Amino acid sequence: MFLYLTLGSNDLRRSRQFYDAALAVLDIGCHYEDASEVGYGPVPPPATGRKCFLWVTRPHLAYPANWGNGTMVAFPAATRQQVRDFHAAAIAAGGSDDGAPGLRPYNPNFYSCYVRDPDGNKLSAVCEAPE
Amino acid sequence: MTILYITLGTNDVARAKRFYDAALATLGFTCRTSDESGMGYVPAGWPEGSTECLIWVEKPFLEYPATWGNGAMVALAAASRQQVRDFHAAAIAAGGTDDGAPGLRRYHPTFYACYVRDPDGNKLSAVCEAPE
């Protein structure tokens, strides 16, 4: 099973501002921070076990972080409005548009958006519930 | 689940399939769907009939070569330390490269992990957090 995921950052303060704002609309928050990484998990955090499933981190290899072409993280959204809120919050917080909220051909109710974080990492929010 | 899915890029779908089929099998994953553009993997217990997969290994949406991200890594849960070792060995035998031998890491007292690169350079980890 999936345990956690890391994405690289060249400016953790900038990343923190971005992810705090963008992920809040998906009920995901920061539960850990130190000089080399910030960790995000569900809000409220689980009573037991691992609190963070996404780490935004300075790379282990000591050269600049970059994004991978083909690498993307998709988060579930409960509603289409939440997809739109995520997209707007991400752009307002320093991200960039990489695909406006809307239906995609993957299935009849696949409503998604795509953004880049300030380091270029690609993120998506997806609502698959009919509306 | 707070992640819907993850994608990783590949420049050689057949090579990636050989690697992921072998490496992920040690952690209970199976390939649920596969075509010329990539494939999707699901962990044991994933709903039958679902076309959704947890991990997709695909040719990139942007039509230039797939690259790995420095700082990006996917960590998968292992049930035992033996499973971590099996994953590491299977990954290397299937065309991956070692990026950290199985062993305890400093994150907490029973954090037993290994690190590998897939044939495209994407970094993967298997972690057993149970005491042994």
Could you explain how this protein is built, in words?
- The complex is a heterodimer of chains A (131) and B (132).
- Chain A has 131 residues and is an alpha+beta fold.
- Chain A has helices at 12-24, 80-92, and strands at residues 2-8, 28-33, 37-42, 54-57, 72-76, 96-97, 102-103, 111-116, 122-127.
- In chain A, helix 1 packs antiparallel against helix 2 (80-92).
- In chain B, a hairpin with a 2-residue loop joins strand 2 and strand 3 (38-42).
- The longest helix of chain B is centred in the N-terminal third of the chain and has 13 residues, at 13-25.
- The two termini of chain B are 27 Å apart.
- At the A-B interface, strand 1 and strand 5 of A face strand 1 and strand 5 of B.
Give me a quick take on this structure.
Chain A is of the alpha+beta class. Chain A contains 2 helices and 9 strands, in the order βαββββαββββ.
